[in-house]
Amino acid sequence: MKTNRAAQSATSLPKAPREDADSRFAKYMVMMGIRIACFIAMAVVTPYGWYTFVFAAGAIFLPYLAVIVANVGQDAADTTAISPERAIEAPRPAPAAAAAAPDGPVVIRIAETPRLDAPRDDRP
To answer: What are the record keywords, sorted (predicted)?
Structure first.
C-alpha cells in the first residue's frame, strides 16, 4: 500500500457547484477576451497577410470552443473516494517506551451492534 505524506481530507468531495460555475465562467471570459483581441488584431494589423487569416479563425472559432469549455462541468472529472486510513501515521512513542511501539499505524474501528435485550423501564 502506498502511503502519502501530504495531508489528506476525510472525504474526497468534488468542488462546490458555485466554485465550479465560477471557474467555468472565468475560462469562458478569458477565451472571449482572446477572441476580441483576435478580432481587433485582424482589423488593425497591416499589411494584411497570412496572419490575418489566423486572427480571423480565432475570432470565428473561439466562441464555439469557449462554450464547449464552459459547459464541461465537474461531472467530467472522475472522482474516487480515498480512504483516510492511509494517511494516519503512528504516534511517535517516547524514547523509554520504544520497545512497545506497534509496527504500523494505530487505527481505531468502531462497530455498532444492535441491542440484544430490551431496555428496562423502572418507572412506576
So the answer is: Membrane, Transmembrane, Transmembrane helix
pLDDT 10s digits, 73-102:
766 555 666 666 655 666 776 665 455 556
Residue in 109, 50, 59 with CA at minimum distance from that of residue 83: 109
Distance linking the first and last C-alpha atoms of the chain: 58
Answer whether 14's CB lies under 8 Å from 74's CB. Answer: yes
- Count the helix, strand and coil residues of the chain and give each as a percent rounded to the nearest 5: 50, 0, 50
CB atoms within 10 A of CB 120: 6
- Report how far residue 104's alpha carbon sits from residue 90's, in angstroms, rounded to the nearest whole number: 6
- C-alpha closest to that of 31 among 57, 56, 59: 59
CA distance 13 to 20: 13
Backbone angles phi, psi at 112, to 5 degrees: -95, 140
Q: Which three cell numbers stand for residue 20?
A: 465550479
Cell of 102: 506497534
Q: What's the full length of the chain, in residues?
A: 124
Q: What is the spatial distance between Cα 102 and Cα 89, in angstroms, rounded to a whole number? A: 11
